[in-house]
Design goal:
CATH topology of the largest domain: Dipeptide-binding Protein, domain 3
Number of strands: 19
Oligomer: single chain
Structural class: alpha+beta
CATH superfamily of the largest domain: Dipeptide-binding Protein, Domain 3
CATH architecture of the largest domain: Roll
Number of helices: 13
Strand content: 15-25%
Distance between the termini: 27 Å
CATH class of the largest domain: Alpha Beta
Shape: globular
Number of domains: 3
Largest sheet: 11 strands, mixed
């Protein structure tokens, strides 16, 4: 019905003219809210902060550390020396970032009063010593061969770190500078090399985002559209649709402390009852690929795991073994957000689980309420996605016994001493040994079925009148650095 409405309205909408503007408008599902890289944890804020702030180290598509603002050398197993690149960009106020800025940024991250969500991954830092204007030493509390990969937080001027002012008025040295906030909650960024401005405009409804693109009120969209709208856009002659395989990992999570979903047979039955291939084919239009772990197999620490097969008969057998069947039905609560696509997905799961004798009760909430409930453990079963994961630190953050909320994101309450040991040893080992340990940890997580792994969602963009934009592998917006208007758009007569 929504697609029919779209087609009906389009003929009238494209006949309207739009006011001329030099700003490129990027219509997004969610606008960033925190422009302080030390505090941001949502995907929208992280993606914008990557444009506003330079960082010491960047991770490539396989999660390997590469020099960005700085290079590094291991002075000893517990000391790393960082040297700033002489060609680094200035802050927007014209001052060159110095070692004091780096030290102040990372010291503030370790200050508990700041409440940074990144502090846990950096707790290995014992002391930071500034050697000179461009050189500093990070002294660690224990050996950590993978430490450089943790240095991915954006660097801000030392004098701006106190008081929380960066959240709404950022100051970085990235390829873009912050211009202004918009009244609708969006913001305007300015590319430093040429002054080209980009407006990130929040439009939660996917159909309205598409209408804005067709009308010329937006020139760019990325992700968060149902398959039928992508198919529609692909048929439009002046719309360019680009896609690439992504790393956004979608999963179904369980509460292992619950007397029902805490049972192995129940979780395994649900895993066998979900037909992932059908969902990818029909709901995603093939724009996803099945997944088995939060780290994709192409990651340096990724693992090739045996897929849990769609097998409804096996699911029924497992439920019978757990004491459920025709004479004793099983009802499970499933929490999700009010996003239209996530609700559609929930009803598909509901239908697939009904086929094996499980009654799924869907409870949908606004995003804030839903996420608070998940972090608090108020659920039996839910679905979420990890976005932009590039480091094996996610294994500790999401599955280690020390990472039960609020200390981390082990929301399923998984407690496994052997898994903890594999993760801890992996973080202490050199790369060669770490690969084997992290892969063994992923096998154990997979066998525990604390998650039902679903898929890695593709990143898909749709643009009009632009050249140079292709979505990043993790959904980042870095292609905006090379995006140009193809030509001056003509005004369409009424």
């Amino acid at each position: 019905m929504r697609l029919g409405w779209l087609l009906l309205c389009t003929a009238w909408l494209v006949a309207c003219s739009r006011p001329p503007t030099d700003i490129i408008t990027f219509a997004v599902a969610t606008a960033p809210t925190v422009l302080d890289p030390r505090l941001a944890s949502d995907a929208a804020s992280e993606r914008v902060n990557a444009l506003l702030y330079d960082r010491l180290v960047q991770l490539d598509e396989r999660g390997r550390a590469r020099p960005a603002m700085a290079s590094w050398a291991a002075v000893s197993p517990t000391r790393y020396r960082l040297t700033l690149d002489p060609g680094r960009r200035t802050f927007w106020n014209g001052r060159l970032p110095q070692a004091d800025d780096v030290a102040a940024t990372y010291r503030s991250l370790l200050d508990r009063s700041l409440g940074s969500p990144h502090a846990g991954a950096l707790a290995v830092i014992g002391r930071i010593e500034v050697i000179d204007a461009t050189t500093m030493d990070f002294e660690l509390t224990r050996p950590d061969p993978g430490f450089p990969a943790r240095l991915t937080i954006g660097i801000a001027p030392a004098e701006r770190l106190a008081g929380g002012g960066l959240t709404r008025q950022p100051l970085g040295s990235g390829v873009f500078r912050f211009a202004t906030w918009r009244d609708d909650g969006g913001l305007v960024l300015e590319r430093r090399r040429d002054g080209q401005q980009f407006a990130l405009v929040p439009v939660p409804d996917p159909t309205m985002r598409v209408l804005k693109l067709l009308r010329g009120e937006a020139q760019l969209l990325q992700n968060d559209l149902p398959a039928e709208l992508y198919r529609f856009l692909e048929q439009e002659p002046d719309i360019d649709v680009a896609q690439r395989p992504g790393t956004t990992f979608a999963y179904i999570g369980f509460n292992l402390a619950d007397p029902v979903t805490g049972r192995d047979e129940v979780r395994q039955a649900i895993a066998h009852a979900i037909d992932r291939d059908a969902v990818i084919r029909h709901l995603f239009g093939g724009r996803a690929r099945s997944a088995e772990s939060v780290l994709p197999p192409t990651h340096w620490a990724g693992a090739n795991l045996d897929a849990r097969q769609y097998d409804p008969e096996r699911a029924r057998e497992l439920l019978l073994a757990a004491g459920y069947g025709p004479d004793r039905s099983l009802t499970i609560s499933y929490k999700t957000s009010t996003d239209p696509f996530r609700l559609r997905l929930a009803h598909v799961f509901q239908s697939q689980l009904a086929d094996v004798g499980i009654r799924l009760q869907i409870a949908s909430y606004d995003w804030g309420t839903f996420f608070v409930d998940i972090k608090a453990g108020r659920f039996q079963m839910y679905s979420l996605a990890w976005v932009g994961i590039n480091s094996p630190d996610i294994l500790r953050y999401a599955f280690h016994s020390d990472s039960l909320p609020p200390a981390g994101a082990n929301r399923g309450r998984l407690v496994d001493a052997q898994l903890d040991k594999l993760i801890e040893l992996g973080q202490l080992a050199d790369t060669g040994d770490a690969v084997a340990l992290f892969r063994a940890a992923q096998v154990r997580i997979h066998d525990s079925q604390v998650y039902v792994p679903l898929w890695y969602e593709h990143n898909v963009s749709a643009s009009r009148g632009l050249d140079g934009y292709r979505p990043g592998h993790d959904g980042n917006y870095l292609a905006l650095t090379r995006t140009e208007k193809r030509h001056a758009e003509r005004e369409i007569p009424r």
